[in-house]
Amino acid sequence: MAAVLIGNFIARVVFSNSWSFAEEIGKFVLIFVTFIGTTVASRYGEHITMTAFIDTLKPKTRMIIVSITNLFTAVLFAILFVFSIKYVIYTKEINFTSTALRFPMYIIYLSLPFSFFFGFVEYLKHFYANLKGRLLFEDFYKETEGKEE
Q1: Would you tell me how many other CB atoms lie within 10 Å of the CB of residue 113?
Q2: Which of 14, 33, 46, 102 has its CA 20 to 30 A from that of 116?
Q3: Within a 10 A sphere around the Cβ of 87, how many other Cβ atoms?
C-alpha cells in the first residue's frame, strides 16, 4: 500500500499525472489489513483493553467479568459474521465494482466474514479457557507490571 501511494505521489508531483487506481488499492489493502488484523489481535490478546477497574477486583470476580466479556464479544462477532455474509452476497448480486479498476468489491469484502468468524472462534476459546479457570493472557500482564517504559 505504501509503495503504491508513494509512487502515486511521485507520479503526481514529478509527472503531473496521478494514477487513477492508487487510492482504490490503498482502500482495498486498508480494508483487508484492518479486518484480518482484528482476528490476529483477538488471537494474541492484543486488542485494546481497559483494565483499571478489572485489575482492582478479586481474582474470581475478575475471571467472571472477563468470561462475560469474552462471551459477549464472541456473540457480537457471530452476529457481525451473519451480517457480513449477507453484505457480501448483496454486493455480489448487484455487481458492485470499484470505480477505477472495475474490481468486484465482494472479493475485498470477503475479509469481513473471515475475520468475524475467526474472531468468534478465538473469543470462544478465551471463554472456554476462562471456564477452565485461567486467563489466557494474564501472565503477560503480570510480567509487565512494575516495569518502566
Answers
A1: 20
A2: 102
A3: 15
Q: Is residue 136 part of a domain?
A: yes
Q: Which structural domain range is residue 41 located in?
A: 2-144
- Does 149 reside within a domain? no
The number of domains in the chain is 1
Q: At what angle do helices 59-93 and 111-131 cross, to 10 degrees?
A: 160
Measured between alpha carbons, how far is 85 from 39 in angstroms, rounded to an integer? Answer: 17
* Angle of helix 22-44 versus helix 2-15 axis, rounded to 10: 160
Proportion of the chain above pLDDT 70, given as a percent: 90
Q: Is residue 82 part of a domain?
A: yes
Single pTM value for the model:
0.78
